[in-house]
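Reopening this ticket.

The earlier resolution said the output was attached, but the attachment link was broken on my side. Pasting everything inline this time so it's all in one place.
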Amino acid sequence: MAINLSKHLRIIVSLCFFAFACFCSANNKPRNGGGFKGMFIFGSSVVDNGNNNNLKGSTSKANFLPYGIDFNVGPIKPTGRFSNGKNVADLIGDHLKLPLIPSFANTQTQGDSILYGVNFASGGSGIFNETGVIWGKVISLHEQITNFEGVTLPKLESRLRSQRDKILPDYLFLVAAGNNDYTFQLLLSPQNASQSAQAFAAKLIDFYSVQLKVRKTSINHKTVYYPSACMRRI
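Inline output:
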């Protein structure tokens, strides 16, 4: 069944702006003079910096040339980014005067290396958990957030000897996701071919909101609310 791409164009363009917005609680402003200590990155190949390289069962990889030929940091070699040079997350990091953010899957992402943040993004992934199955294994947005909450955040608290409600306001959270959901779940999916772009967008936004909802955790017998992904315009 042929798909009329023109009817989806407006909502796809809108999603691009939506996906690249960086959000943060209005009350959570950095304490270090308006800057950020670091950045946590979630999303798809737009911001993946190598998490898929050693992902078993995945065919969504950028670990071969010509990827990386214009990266200009060290010898010419593929970096795991789905680009010839730096990706969007790298450029935002440059703007914030941050060092390159390490990938979560890198075995050297330990100790002080997490103090400037961690990149959890996975090429081919999406907001919906099933997006990207065409590539075999990818790390969904839900899994990425789980990795942040269950692995990196406790390590960061231990390293900084502080609690998350004190730490997180000093970090930028970047989420770039949704493009693969449109590609694989709407435009190329026979079962969703009859679904309108508006209906798909509403379902996608609802699920996205669940992923970014304010989570509740207990610290020292008091309840603290923090966003699992912040939004802040830069």
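Reporter confirms the inline version is readable. Helices lie at 6-20, 88-95, 141-160, 164-167, 179-187, 197-211. The beta strands are 38-43, 171-176, 214-219, 222-227.
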